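Can't paste images in this forum, so I'm doing it all in text. The chain is below; anyone willing to post the predicted C-alpha coordinates underneath?
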Amino acid sequence: MKHLFLVSCLALFAVSGNAATKAKKSNSNKPVFTVVKENKITSIKDQNRSGTCWDYSTLSFFEAEILKKTGKTYDLCEAFVCNKTYMDRAVQVVRFHGDCQFAQGGSAYDPLYCIQNYGICPEDAMPAAGSLYGDSLNNFNEFFSVLSPYVNAVSKSDSKKLSTQWRVGFQGILDAYLGKCPEEFTYEGKKYTPKSFAASLGLNWDDYVSVTSYTHHPFWTQFAVEVQDNWRFPLSYNVPMADMQRIIDNAVNEGYTIAWGGDVSEDGFTRKGLAYYVDSKQTSSLAGSDMAKWLKLAKTAKTDKIDSLGCLVPEVTPTQELRQERFDNWELTDDHGMLIYGIAKDQNGKEYYMVKNSWGETGDYKGIWYMTKNFIIGNTMDFMVNKNAIPADLRQKMGIK
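Text version of the structure:
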Protein backbone atom coordinates (compact mmCIF):
# COMPACT_ATOMS: atom_id res chain seq x y z
CA MET A 1 0.00 0.00 0.00
CA LYS A 2 2.85 2.37 0.92
CA HIS A 3 4.61 1.39 -2.30
CA LEU A 4 1.49 2.17 -4.28
CA PHE A 5 1.13 5.51 -2.50
CA LEU A 6 4.77 6.35 -3.25
CA VAL A 7 4.31 5.51 -6.93
CA SER A 8 1.20 7.66 -7.01
CA CYS A 9 3.03 10.56 -5.39
CA LEU A 10 5.88 10.24 -7.86
CA ALA A 11 3.42 10.20 -10.75
CA LEU A 12 1.70 13.27 -9.34
CA PHE A 13 5.05 15.00 -8.95
CA ALA A 14 5.96 14.15 -12.53
CA VAL A 15 2.67 15.54 -13.81
CA SER A 16 3.12 18.68 -11.70
CA GLY A 17 6.67 19.03 -12.96
CA ASN A 18 5.56 18.73 -16.58
CA ALA A 19 2.82 21.29 -15.98
CA ALA A 20 5.32 23.67 -14.43
CA THR A 21 7.67 23.18 -17.38
CA LYS A 22 4.85 23.89 -19.81
CA ALA A 23 3.86 26.96 -17.80
CA LYS A 24 7.42 28.25 -18.00
CA LYS A 25 7.43 27.68 -21.74
CA SER A 26 4.12 29.51 -22.26
CA ASN A 27 4.51 32.86 -23.93
CA SER A 28 3.60 35.71 -21.60
CA ASN A 29 3.65 38.04 -24.60
CA LYS A 30 0.84 36.23 -26.35
CA PRO A 31 -1.99 38.73 -26.79
CA VAL A 32 -5.10 38.39 -24.68
CA PHE A 33 -8.01 39.87 -26.59
CA THR A 34 -11.06 41.78 -25.47
CA VAL A 35 -13.74 42.24 -28.10
CA VAL A 36 -14.68 45.85 -28.78
CA LYS A 37 -17.16 45.18 -31.61
CA GLU A 38 -18.06 41.90 -33.31
CA ASN A 39 -20.51 41.50 -36.17
CA LYS A 40 -22.23 38.28 -37.16
CA ILE A 41 -20.60 36.10 -39.83
CA THR A 42 -21.25 32.69 -41.34
CA SER A 43 -19.13 29.58 -40.75
CA ILE A 44 -15.43 29.23 -41.58
CA LYS A 45 -14.81 27.67 -45.02
CA ASP A 46 -11.69 26.07 -46.53
CA GLN A 47 -10.52 27.01 -50.02
CA ASN A 48 -7.81 24.34 -49.67
CA ARG A 49 -5.52 24.04 -52.74
CA SER A 50 -7.20 26.67 -54.86
CA GLY A 51 -6.46 30.32 -55.52
CA THR A 52 -10.03 31.31 -54.73
CA CYS A 53 -9.71 33.56 -51.66
CA TRP A 54 -11.41 36.31 -53.71
CA ASP A 55 -14.42 34.01 -54.14
CA TYR A 56 -14.64 32.71 -50.57
CA SER A 57 -14.06 36.08 -48.89
CA THR A 58 -16.54 37.98 -51.06
CA LEU A 59 -19.32 35.39 -50.82
CA SER A 60 -18.68 35.37 -47.08
CA PHE A 61 -19.11 39.15 -47.18
CA PHE A 62 -22.46 38.83 -48.98
CA GLU A 63 -23.55 36.09 -46.56
CA ALA A 64 -22.82 38.50 -43.69
CA GLU A 65 -24.73 41.25 -45.51
CA ILE A 66 -27.75 38.95 -45.87
CA LEU A 67 -27.46 37.92 -42.21
CA LYS A 68 -27.40 41.56 -41.13
CA LYS A 69 -30.35 42.57 -43.28
CA THR A 70 -32.64 39.55 -43.02
CA GLY A 71 -31.37 37.43 -40.13
CA LYS A 72 -31.13 34.43 -42.49
CA THR A 73 -28.02 32.27 -42.87
CA TYR A 74 -26.99 31.18 -46.36
CA ASP A 75 -24.09 29.17 -47.73
CA LEU A 76 -23.52 30.55 -51.23
CA CYS A 77 -21.77 28.44 -53.85
CA GLU A 78 -18.15 29.28 -54.67
CA ALA A 79 -18.05 26.71 -57.51
CA PHE A 80 -20.86 28.53 -59.36
CA VAL A 81 -18.86 31.76 -59.27
CA CYS A 82 -15.65 29.99 -60.35
CA ASN A 83 -17.36 28.29 -63.27
CA LYS A 84 -18.80 31.53 -64.64
CA THR A 85 -15.74 33.64 -63.84
CA TYR A 86 -13.10 31.37 -65.38
CA MET A 87 -15.09 31.21 -68.63
CA ASP A 88 -15.33 35.01 -68.75
CA ARG A 89 -11.63 35.33 -68.00
CA ALA A 90 -10.70 32.85 -70.72
CA VAL A 91 -12.83 34.76 -73.23
CA GLN A 92 -10.98 37.96 -72.34
CA VAL A 93 -7.56 36.32 -72.74
CA VAL A 94 -8.54 34.97 -76.17
CA ARG A 95 -9.84 38.40 -77.22
CA PHE A 96 -6.48 39.89 -76.18
CA HIS A 97 -4.65 37.16 -78.15
CA GLY A 98 -3.01 35.99 -74.93
CA ASP A 99 -1.63 39.40 -73.97
CA CYS A 100 -3.14 39.27 -70.48
CA GLN A 101 -3.12 36.82 -67.62
CA PHE A 102 -5.26 33.72 -67.12
CA ALA A 103 -4.99 32.65 -63.48
CA GLN A 104 -6.89 31.27 -60.50
CA GLY A 105 -7.03 34.63 -58.73
CA GLY A 106 -9.57 37.39 -58.96
CA SER A 107 -11.00 40.39 -57.16
CA ALA A 108 -13.99 41.05 -54.93
CA TYR A 109 -15.75 42.47 -57.96
CA ASP A 110 -15.85 39.06 -59.70
CA PRO A 111 -18.47 37.44 -57.41
CA LEU A 112 -20.52 40.67 -57.52
CA TYR A 113 -20.37 40.72 -61.33
CA CYS A 114 -21.35 37.04 -61.41
CA ILE A 115 -24.36 37.57 -59.14
CA GLN A 116 -25.51 40.63 -61.08
CA ASN A 117 -25.19 38.95 -64.48
CA TYR A 118 -25.65 35.21 -63.88
CA GLY A 119 -27.19 34.90 -60.42
CA ILE A 120 -26.04 32.52 -57.70
CA CYS A 121 -27.09 29.24 -56.11
CA PRO A 122 -26.69 27.67 -52.65
CA GLU A 123 -23.71 25.42 -51.97
CA ASP A 124 -25.67 22.16 -52.16
CA ALA A 125 -27.09 22.94 -55.62
CA MET A 126 -23.73 21.88 -57.11
CA PRO A 127 -21.36 18.97 -56.34
CA ALA A 128 -19.36 19.33 -53.12
CA ALA A 129 -15.90 20.85 -53.52
CA GLY A 130 -13.42 18.29 -54.84
CA SER A 131 -15.98 15.48 -54.97
CA LEU A 132 -15.95 15.08 -58.78
CA TYR A 133 -12.28 14.05 -58.73
CA GLY A 134 -12.24 12.08 -55.50
CA ASP A 135 -11.16 14.78 -53.07
CA SER A 136 -12.92 16.20 -50.02
CA LEU A 137 -11.94 19.82 -50.76
CA ASN A 138 -10.80 21.93 -53.70
CA ASN A 139 -7.55 20.93 -55.36
CA PHE A 140 -6.95 22.97 -58.49
CA ASN A 141 -3.48 21.62 -59.29
CA GLU A 142 -4.58 19.19 -62.00
CA PHE A 143 -7.54 21.38 -62.95
CA PHE A 144 -5.41 24.37 -63.89
CA SER A 145 -2.67 22.25 -65.44
CA VAL A 146 -5.40 21.42 -67.99
CA LEU A 147 -7.15 24.82 -68.16
CA SER A 148 -4.12 27.07 -68.58
CA PRO A 149 -2.54 25.28 -71.59
CA TYR A 150 -5.97 25.10 -73.20
CA VAL A 151 -6.45 28.88 -72.97
CA ASN A 152 -2.87 29.48 -74.11
CA ALA A 153 -3.31 27.22 -77.13
CA VAL A 154 -6.46 28.99 -78.25
CA SER A 155 -5.30 32.54 -77.53
CA LYS A 156 -1.94 32.04 -79.25
CA SER A 157 -3.38 30.15 -82.21
CA ASP A 158 -2.09 31.15 -85.63
CA SER A 159 -5.52 30.47 -87.14
CA LYS A 160 -7.04 33.28 -89.14
CA LYS A 161 -10.43 32.51 -87.64
CA LEU A 162 -11.37 30.69 -84.43
CA SER A 163 -14.29 28.31 -84.25
CA THR A 164 -16.81 28.63 -81.44
CA GLN A 165 -16.05 25.07 -80.32
CA TRP A 166 -13.16 26.12 -78.09
CA ARG A 167 -15.75 27.50 -75.66
CA VAL A 168 -17.65 24.21 -75.72
CA GLY A 169 -14.49 22.28 -74.87
CA PHE A 170 -13.47 24.76 -72.19
CA GLN A 171 -16.91 24.61 -70.61
CA GLY A 172 -16.60 20.83 -70.52
CA ILE A 173 -13.41 21.08 -68.46
CA LEU A 174 -15.02 23.56 -66.07
CA ASP A 175 -18.05 21.32 -65.61
CA ALA A 176 -15.90 18.22 -65.14
CA TYR A 177 -13.97 19.70 -62.22
CA LEU A 178 -16.46 22.16 -60.72
CA GLY A 179 -19.81 20.73 -61.73
CA LYS A 180 -22.43 22.15 -64.09
CA CYS A 181 -24.11 25.36 -63.01
CA PRO A 182 -27.80 24.54 -62.48
CA GLU A 183 -30.41 26.25 -64.63
CA GLU A 184 -33.02 25.50 -61.98
CA PHE A 185 -32.93 24.08 -58.44
CA THR A 186 -35.10 23.68 -55.35
CA TYR A 187 -34.20 25.45 -52.11
CA GLU A 188 -36.31 25.03 -48.98
CA GLY A 189 -39.15 23.63 -51.04
CA LYS A 190 -39.22 26.40 -53.63
CA LYS A 191 -37.93 26.34 -57.20
CA TYR A 192 -35.45 28.97 -58.32
CA THR A 193 -33.21 29.90 -61.20
CA PRO A 194 -29.82 31.36 -60.23
CA LYS A 195 -31.10 34.84 -61.08
CA SER A 196 -34.36 34.51 -59.13
CA PHE A 197 -32.42 33.11 -56.17
CA ALA A 198 -30.06 36.12 -56.21
CA ALA A 199 -33.09 38.42 -56.31
CA SER A 200 -34.63 36.60 -53.33
CA LEU A 201 -31.67 37.24 -51.00
CA GLY A 202 -32.86 40.70 -49.99
CA LEU A 203 -29.80 42.73 -51.04
CA ASN A 204 -29.50 45.65 -53.43
CA TRP A 205 -26.52 44.58 -55.54
CA ASP A 206 -25.90 48.22 -56.52
CA ASP A 207 -25.04 49.10 -52.90
CA TYR A 208 -21.47 47.82 -53.11
CA VAL A 209 -18.41 49.94 -53.83
CA SER A 210 -14.65 49.47 -53.78
CA VAL A 211 -12.28 51.76 -51.87
CA THR A 212 -8.52 52.27 -52.06
CA SER A 213 -5.88 54.89 -51.23
CA TYR A 214 -2.97 55.84 -53.49
CA THR A 215 -1.40 59.10 -54.66
CA HIS A 216 -0.69 58.20 -58.29
CA HIS A 217 -4.34 59.10 -58.98
CA PRO A 218 -6.20 62.13 -57.58
CA PHE A 219 -8.13 61.66 -54.37
CA TRP A 220 -11.93 61.70 -54.59
CA THR A 221 -11.85 60.16 -58.06
CA GLN A 222 -12.18 56.54 -59.23
CA PHE A 223 -9.65 54.33 -60.99
CA ALA A 224 -8.99 50.66 -61.68
CA VAL A 225 -6.26 49.45 -59.31
CA GLU A 226 -3.37 48.25 -61.46
CA VAL A 227 -3.00 44.61 -60.43
CA GLN A 228 -3.36 41.59 -62.72
CA ASP A 229 -6.21 39.94 -60.86
CA ASN A 230 -8.27 43.13 -61.25
CA TRP A 231 -8.83 41.90 -64.80
CA ARG A 232 -12.39 43.24 -65.21
CA PHE A 233 -11.02 46.73 -64.43
CA PRO A 234 -13.67 47.74 -61.87
CA LEU A 235 -13.22 51.23 -60.46
CA SER A 236 -12.29 51.95 -56.85
CA TYR A 237 -12.89 55.22 -55.01
CA ASN A 238 -9.53 56.77 -54.14
CA VAL A 239 -9.52 58.44 -50.71
CA PRO A 240 -6.77 59.60 -48.34
CA MET A 241 -5.40 56.88 -46.07
CA ALA A 242 -6.93 58.35 -42.91
CA ASP A 243 -10.35 58.35 -44.55
CA MET A 244 -9.83 54.80 -45.77
CA GLN A 245 -9.34 53.73 -42.15
CA ARG A 246 -12.28 55.83 -41.05
CA ILE A 247 -14.49 53.97 -43.53
CA ILE A 248 -13.37 50.58 -42.18
CA ASP A 249 -13.88 51.62 -38.56
CA ASN A 250 -17.26 53.18 -39.25
CA ALA A 251 -18.43 50.12 -41.17
CA VAL A 252 -17.53 47.71 -38.36
CA ASN A 253 -19.00 49.94 -35.65
CA GLU A 254 -22.23 50.29 -37.64
CA GLY A 255 -22.62 46.50 -37.95
CA TYR A 256 -21.15 45.94 -41.42
CA THR A 257 -18.32 43.73 -42.63
CA ILE A 258 -15.64 44.47 -45.25
CA ALA A 259 -14.36 42.27 -48.10
CA TRP A 260 -10.65 43.08 -47.74
CA GLY A 261 -7.92 42.49 -50.31
CA GLY A 262 -4.27 43.01 -49.49
CA ASP A 263 -0.77 41.79 -48.80
CA VAL A 264 -0.19 38.88 -46.40
CA SER A 265 3.32 38.05 -47.61
CA GLU A 266 4.84 40.27 -44.92
CA ASP A 267 6.91 38.77 -42.06
CA GLY A 268 4.33 39.91 -39.55
CA PHE A 269 1.53 37.76 -40.95
CA THR A 270 1.76 34.48 -39.03
CA ARG A 271 0.05 31.14 -39.54
CA LYS A 272 -1.06 31.22 -35.91
CA GLY A 273 -3.71 33.83 -36.53
CA LEU A 274 -1.90 37.12 -35.89
CA ALA A 275 -0.63 39.92 -38.11
CA TYR A 276 1.66 42.82 -37.15
CA TYR A 277 3.09 45.57 -39.35
CA VAL A 278 6.58 44.73 -38.16
CA ASP A 279 9.28 47.35 -37.74
CA SER A 280 12.14 45.06 -38.78
CA LYS A 281 14.90 47.27 -37.38
CA GLN A 282 13.43 47.48 -33.88
CA THR A 283 12.31 43.84 -33.94
CA SER A 284 15.77 42.59 -34.86
CA SER A 285 17.17 44.48 -31.88
CA LEU A 286 14.62 43.02 -29.47
CA ALA A 287 15.21 39.55 -30.96
CA GLY A 288 18.91 39.81 -30.14
CA SER A 289 20.09 40.12 -33.71
CA ASP A 290 21.44 42.95 -35.81
CA MET A 291 19.54 44.03 -38.90
CA ALA A 292 21.85 42.21 -41.31
CA LYS A 293 21.36 38.90 -39.52
CA TRP A 294 17.61 39.49 -39.27
CA LEU A 295 17.29 39.96 -43.02
CA LYS A 296 19.15 36.69 -43.63
CA LEU A 297 16.89 34.66 -41.36
CA ALA A 298 14.47 32.22 -42.99
CA LYS A 299 10.82 33.27 -42.91
CA THR A 300 10.01 30.54 -40.35
CA ALA A 301 12.80 31.79 -38.06
CA LYS A 302 11.48 35.35 -38.32
CA THR A 303 7.96 34.13 -37.58
CA ASP A 304 9.19 32.32 -34.46
CA LYS A 305 10.86 35.51 -33.24
CA ILE A 306 7.73 37.54 -33.95
CA ASP A 307 5.57 34.96 -32.17
CA SER A 308 7.82 35.10 -29.10
CA LEU A 309 7.56 38.90 -28.96
CA GLY A 310 3.79 38.70 -29.40
CA CYS A 311 1.97 41.89 -28.50
CA LEU A 312 5.33 43.60 -27.87
CA VAL A 313 6.29 43.47 -31.57
CA PRO A 314 7.36 46.99 -32.61
CA GLU A 315 5.25 48.22 -35.52
CA VAL A 316 5.70 50.64 -38.36
CA THR A 317 3.21 53.49 -38.41
CA PRO A 318 1.72 53.46 -41.92
CA THR A 319 1.82 56.66 -43.95
CA GLN A 320 0.42 57.68 -47.30
CA GLU A 321 3.93 58.01 -48.69
CA LEU A 322 4.99 54.57 -47.47
CA ARG A 323 1.90 52.94 -48.99
CA GLN A 324 2.65 54.51 -52.35
CA GLU A 325 6.35 53.68 -52.25
CA ARG A 326 5.66 50.03 -51.47
CA PHE A 327 3.01 49.77 -54.19
CA ASP A 328 5.32 51.30 -56.80
CA ASN A 329 8.21 49.04 -55.75
CA TRP A 330 6.09 45.84 -55.95
CA GLU A 331 6.37 45.36 -52.17
CA LEU A 332 2.67 45.95 -51.51
CA THR A 333 1.07 43.15 -53.50
CA ASP A 334 -2.38 41.68 -54.01
CA ASP A 335 -2.00 38.36 -52.18
CA HIS A 336 -5.16 37.45 -50.35
CA GLY A 337 -8.83 38.21 -49.73
CA MET A 338 -10.36 38.02 -46.23
CA LEU A 339 -13.37 39.34 -44.31
CA ILE A 340 -13.03 42.07 -41.65
CA TYR A 341 -15.90 41.72 -39.19
CA GLY A 342 -14.85 43.10 -35.81
CA ILE A 343 -12.44 45.03 -33.59
CA ALA A 344 -10.60 43.74 -30.52
CA LYS A 345 -7.85 45.05 -28.27
CA ASP A 346 -5.02 43.26 -26.47
CA GLN A 347 -3.88 43.55 -22.86
CA ASN A 348 -1.86 46.66 -23.75
CA GLY A 349 -4.78 48.43 -25.40
CA LYS A 350 -3.57 47.96 -28.99
CA GLU A 351 -6.47 47.52 -31.41
CA TYR A 352 -6.79 44.76 -33.98
CA TYR A 353 -9.31 43.97 -36.68
CA MET A 354 -10.98 40.58 -36.34
CA VAL A 355 -10.70 38.90 -39.73
CA LYS A 356 -12.29 35.72 -41.09
CA ASN A 357 -9.98 33.62 -43.27
CA SER A 358 -10.80 30.80 -45.70
CA TRP A 359 -8.13 28.26 -44.72
CA GLY A 360 -10.38 26.15 -42.52
CA GLU A 361 -10.29 26.23 -38.72
CA THR A 362 -6.52 26.71 -38.59
CA GLY A 363 -4.28 28.73 -36.28
CA ASP A 364 -4.72 29.54 -32.61
CA TYR A 365 -8.13 31.10 -33.21
CA LYS A 366 -9.72 28.44 -35.44
CA GLY A 367 -9.74 30.31 -38.71
CA ILE A 368 -9.91 33.84 -37.32
CA TRP A 369 -6.97 36.26 -37.62
CA TYR A 370 -6.31 39.23 -35.34
CA MET A 371 -4.59 41.80 -37.55
CA THR A 372 -3.43 45.10 -36.10
CA LYS A 373 -4.90 48.26 -37.50
CA ASN A 374 -1.40 49.27 -38.61
CA PHE A 375 -1.07 46.03 -40.59
CA ILE A 376 -4.43 46.40 -42.32
CA ILE A 377 -4.00 50.06 -43.23
CA GLY A 378 -0.42 49.55 -44.37
CA ASN A 379 -1.21 46.48 -46.47
CA THR A 380 -4.64 47.18 -47.96
CA MET A 381 -4.82 46.97 -51.74
CA ASP A 382 -8.55 47.74 -51.85
CA PHE A 383 -11.77 46.56 -50.23
CA MET A 384 -15.47 46.22 -50.95
CA VAL A 385 -18.03 47.70 -48.58
CA ASN A 386 -21.71 48.59 -48.49
CA LYS A 387 -21.93 52.25 -49.51
CA ASN A 388 -24.30 52.84 -46.57
CA ALA A 389 -21.45 51.96 -44.20
CA ILE A 390 -19.43 54.99 -45.37
CA PRO A 391 -19.77 58.16 -43.26
CA ALA A 392 -22.20 60.61 -44.88
CA ASP A 393 -19.65 63.40 -45.32
CA LEU A 394 -17.26 61.06 -47.13
CA ARG A 395 -20.03 59.70 -49.34
CA GLN A 396 -20.76 63.26 -50.40
CA LYS A 397 -17.09 63.93 -51.25
CA MET A 398 -16.93 60.64 -53.16
CA GLY A 399 -20.08 61.52 -55.11
CA ILE A 400 -21.96 58.46 -53.86
CA LYS A 401 -25.74 58.84 -53.59
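The CA atoms of residues 260 and 383 lie 4 Å apart. The longest strand covers residues 336-345.
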